[in-house]
C-alpha cells in the first residue's frame, strides 16, 4: 500500500467523522435518543482512531537508532492495535451500556422529531463518501484478492482499519435510523434501545476482528506468498547459487522486509567469489521485491543426507 493512499483514506474518514460527530451530538441534545448518543460517541471514537493512525504513520518514519536498529516501522501496527481497543471500549461497550439503561427506561422521542432522521440521513451520505475513498484506495493494492483476503493479508494496517471502521459506521447508522424511525412511528422507546444495542454488538465485533488481525502483525508476519516466490526465484536465478537450504522473511514494517536465507554455494569457490555472488544475489532480490531492504545471506555447502538403512530382522 502506498503511504499517500492510506493517508488520503484516513484524512477523508477523519474529516467526515468530525463533522458527523458534531451534528449527532446536537441531535442527541435535542431528542435525548440513545441511538443518537451511541452514534455520537462512535463518531468521536472513529475520529480519535484516525488521528492515532496518522500519528502512528508519522512516528514510524523515524530513522533507525542503535537501540532500535531495524527502525520504527512496526509502530504503525501498535497504533492500529490501540485503535481496536478504543473502538471496543469507547465505541462498543459504551453503546451496550447506553442500551442497557434505555431498556430500563424506554422513553420515546418527545420533541424535534425530524432532527435525528435528517442527521442520520446526512451522516449516511457523508460516510458513504468516506467509505468510497477507502474502497478506491484499497483497489489500487488489492489486486485480485477478495475483500476478506485483503483485510486478512494486508501488511499495511491503515486501509483495512479504515475500511472496517467505515463499514461499521454505515451499518451502525442504518441500525440507528431503524431504531429512531420505529420509535417515532410507535412512540415506544424500546426500538431506540434495540438500535443502540445493535450498534454496540456491531462495534465490538469489528473491534475483535481488528485486534486479531493486528495482533498477528505485531507478532511478526512473513512476506506474502507472492513476494516469497519472487525472492526464491531471484536467489536461484543466478548460476552461482545451487539451491536455497532454508529461508525466512519478516515484515519490519508495512514497507520494509527482512530476508534471511542459507544458500548453497559450490564447494571449491574462494571467499572473494562467494562475496561477489552474494552481492549479485542481493541485487536481484531488491530488484524483484523493492521492500526487501534488510537481507542476510549465509553461504554453506549443501550436503545430501543419506537415508538410514532399513532395519534387518
TrEMBL record:
Main location: membrane
Subcellular location: Membrane
Source superkingdom: Bacteria
Keywords: Membrane, Transmembrane, Transmembrane helix, Transport
InterPro entries: Cation_efflux, Cation_efflux_CTD_sf, Cation_efflux_TM, Cation_efflux_TMD_sf, SLC30A9
Transmembrane segments annotated in the record for this chain: 9-30, 77-100, 112-135, 162-184, 190-212
Membrane topology: Multi-pass membrane protein
Keyword Transmembrane: yes
Keyword Transport: yes
Domain Cation efflux protein transmembrane: 11-219
Protein name: Cation diffusion facilitator family transporter
Species whose genome carries this gene: Phytohabitans maris
Source lineage: Bacteria, Bacillati, Actinomycetota, Actinomycetes, Micromonosporales
